[in-house]
Amino acid sequence: MGILLMVIRGVLMASERGRAFIVSLAACFSLISLSGCSFGEAEGEEAGRGTGVDAIDDVDGTEGSGLPLDSYFASPAQAQMLDRAQDVLKKQCMERYGFSYTPPPLPEVVPVKGVGNRYGIADPADAANFGYGGPDMATQADDPPLGEDEAAVFNGPEELDPDSLPNSQEEVDDLPASTSNANLVNGLVVPPGGCIRESFLKLYAPRAGAVDILFTQDLERESFARSRADSRVKDAASAWSACMGRSGYEVSDPMNPGRELNLAEDLSGEKATAIAVQDVECKKRANLIKIWFAVESSYQHEVIKREADTLKRAKAEHHERIRFAESLVK
């Protein structure tokens, strides 16, 4: 989920809706989270059958390709470049106020095969090597410590109402040059939301009316919720559960069996590894990953058709953003 890392770092000052979505997405899709979304909780969606998934046995994009909406997201390499570009913008912003800023190193990009662990652990080698713990994941380093004035410029005012912030850099540029209650540092007005917000707006919302960077993630979240409630996915999940039961593991949630089996204390131990190996084998026997991928692909094709105009704009803005980022990190 390279895009998730990019959004989390970029939307530090985003709306409450955006922050809530990020938390929800992380909880649902993280392999190492054993207390996330349980199977069947589908945001109010009732179980049903989507359109266009009649020959799911002929659909197999889980290994070499991704889901239809993936083409509207930054690739892992692009996401890291966008992170680097945002760091450059932070540095430029801080320098305007006379401060030197050295961004922390970015974590290494970890490539994901196909849909990765979107539908629960799926790779036999990962299961055998790491159980439900997964390989050690690199974490984003903290920003360097800042002095009082530096922090004011970098973060903006401590008491900040996110809903009062401009939604684009164009709106910021149109603000009056000075106000009576402006926050001044070294004689200059601090940008609304500080350099963090400025770097985000310049990269993701340079103009008023830009497509919300979370728009495509919202569509992906919708397709996942609808597929999880689909009767074909539920039937495959039941077959997986029965397979696990025959091995002595009473579980119902292919996304989160570790929670039901109380494995949180030892995700990569001998017991967890044995269960994870059986988990992957049962998913294969139930054809769960292939079916779920096919069903969600169908739902994504539906939302792509429904939101074609906005997605076309989003893709054009993404290409423009990548070109801008390339100019910053060269």
TrEMBL record:
It comes from the Bacteria. Residues 134-179 are annotated as: Disordered. This is Lipoprotein. The lineage of its organism: Bacteria, Bacillati, Actinomycetota, Actinomycetes, Kitasatosporales.
